[in-house]
């Protein structure tokens, strides 16, 4: 609880209307899109300017009050649950695109700008900002940067990290620094820009970002390939990459996922197929033509039962949007949907799919799988009911085994959703104790009082659980 | 709120709320950008669908008490249900909202005046068509007798809040009691018979908006329908259902089911999106009454909006014409989000010769009318309306077409508020279609007359 005089200090900085303390407000900011995590903050504060951010942070640091920065609260790793109370810091007023620089091909923006709005603004000028997480209609750029989000176009164009050129950051002590800039090259000191990308609000607050843009690709073609079995689809993915083609998009959906997505979108998806691949190539017309022809023949060589081409951009967009709804659509089947984010080297994708099926069977849990197959990033999603304690134990064991398998195949516990509170207990699986230790020293250096998003990234004691509430 | 009241509400939340439906929300936030109150409140989660569902769940879970702020969040909801079609999990938000509001209102100590007004309106007025006619007659007396002129000139209107003043201005000149009482109950098609339909006339539509109802039956006749208008029908009950008066809503549903059961018809036609959406939901309303459920579902399956039946019968292929002008369409939330009828009105409007149909940005976003929302949540309603007017102005349309009486009044209010009443008009789609039909046919018959001379 914050005392009355403490709230007055905050109100003096950001204005009374930008400090909320009602229990209803606290409740609606007590969770994000991660199941099973909820904790009440003490206040919700919405600074109007970067300068106000700095004042709030400085004061909170002096008082040792935890700060949980929050964009749109769509993250899937409990990154914005205020586990230790404190202040939820909203970015909703920092929502302006500051400049689109057509000479340097950059956009400079505040963190609270909606991802899709930013994309549309640059596209209106013939430019292209590729990172397109499925949540882009809702998520903010600040959230994307802090989770280093990927999307459907990640295979060819990379993830958010590949587009962040410079940042303005308010450090936990309230000081403001600028890193990078509109420079193609810059080796002055440590690369703090990269450090802050994916830092999940644990090192400071991002108040401005300069992002790289590229020219809009000339054309785009979209293909849907249907399979009788999941392995054949997974093999196709590996074959396409091995044949030195990098499609813009290479997405995988299994049959249960196709069915729920079709229930929602009603666009005539092939619900009889055991698995489908959604493949896109963009770029120069001649190259696209050639690549797509080759991709189609690889699909056919690998037992695709049908390969069809989207007839128009409207049809292609309907397919993409259907794919983006996959996770939420799966939620219609069972009360609790727990999704994972294990990622392996591309060449191992078939092995990983096979392993997921085996693990689901072994622990008798229902797992559906979809994801960015081309990136080796699958989202095995467990459909369960949090009220069934016995089943939740088995879910927990299944996920632990999936993580271990992913790491053994040369992969990682999370490809794009971040560690947050949810995967903190498993960080050591990927990094080892020395790796976690190195990261903790970085955290300690920036945030000695541990006020920035405490309880995220690093677990207090090593073995907590992912899905079973303590 | 008193502690005892809160405890009662909390307990009933635990007993009555559909917990599986609450759990069905996986908190992805996909619904946020479609929610008008979330957008207009400067992205406040407490005024978002995800936030409201979380609040309901938290009350059931005992994490929070159902205090004033929780109630505030639910009161601010328009009930437009724009959050439903965009929800991949298929959360039926409308049902959750109805359950929650019902519990809160039934248990709340209301102030005496509020109680009296609610009782008068919900039990004394809307269920009784004769009384509706009586009240509308009074308004007519006010409008025609010279009282209105006196009221407006004397400055007495200034005593009312701004939105009420505007509302008084935009209320259409109502029909005389005589014409309302002599409503015709049976119509033959003017062309060979294609469908037999019953017309759900609606309480407000068959009084204040009687000419629009007359236009509706005319269009149906031109399209080849034989029409019956069952006398025993009542108000649909939507206003009650959405304001936490569920028992009264159920009573009216039963009356309507009985009234239409006898008729041998293909469809039951409505011309008010708000009513139609409530009528198609009778099955849910009466889900706990085994002897009614199947009858309710049979009733609901026949409900069809006027624009949808017109398209089915190929009305858009008939000659339709208007003067050169731009027209635009404001979706009725419930027609679009619940009845899923949104292509049909556009198809009809695009087929009018001379008129150019221009889609406004966010045509599917609520106009802020929402039943009695504009009277009780005036500030938010007006903010939403201002946004809507900006979008309509950008289309340069001279005519704003609507498909529900509430939207129609709200758009008129918007036009009045912007001081554009001499340049822009708002109409119900059936009135415009009739105008276009008659216009085309009179030109046509004039031409054929002259050629025969
Ligand atoms: C249905 C669904 C689909 C999704 N699809 C994808 C996908 O395809 N790819 C993908 O990568 N992710 C996906 N996500 C996860 C999520 O949407 C992304 O992580 C997104 O980037 C989060 O953005 P946000 O604005 O909601 O951030 P939030 O969830 O609010 O915050 C995310 C993190 O960033 C921190 N933060 C936010 N703003 C700032 C700031 N200005 N300064 C410092 N820290 C800050 C927070 O503290 C938190 O740790 C999906 C989520 C859902 C629900
Ligand atoms: S209502 Fe649907 S769209 Fe909205 S947060 Fe819940 S699951 Fe997502
Ligand atoms: S019904 Fe309308 S106002 Fe209410 S939560 Fe849904 S979208 Fe928002």
UniProtKB/TrEMBL annotation, chain A:
This is Glycolate oxidase. GO terms for cellular component: glycolate oxidase complex. Coiled coil: none annotated. Keywords: FAD, Flavoprotein, Oxidoreductase. Its cofactor is FAD. The keyword Flavoprotein applies. Belongs to the FAD-binding oxidoreductase/transferase type 4 family.
From TrEMBL, chain B:
Component of a complex that catalyzes the oxidation of glycolate to glyoxylate. Binds 2 [4Fe-4S] clusters. InterPro entries: 4Fe4S_Fe-S-bd, 4Fe4S_Fe_S_CS, Cys_rich_dom, Glc_ox_4Fe-4S, Helical_ferredxn. Its EC number is 1.1.99.14. The keyword Transmembrane does not apply. Residues 15-45, 68-91 form the 4Fe-4S ferredoxin-type domain. It comes from the Bacteria. This is Glycolate oxidase iron-sulfur subunit. The lineage of its organism: Bacteria, Bacillati, Bacillota, Bacilli, Bacillales. It is an enzyme of class 1 (oxidoreductase). PROSITE patterns: 4FE4S_FER_1, 4FE4S_FER_2. Pfam families: CCG (PF02754), Fer4_8 (PF13183). Its cofactor is [4Fe-4S] cluster. GO terms for molecular function: 4 iron, 4 sulfur cluster binding; glycolate dehydrogenase activity; metal ion binding.
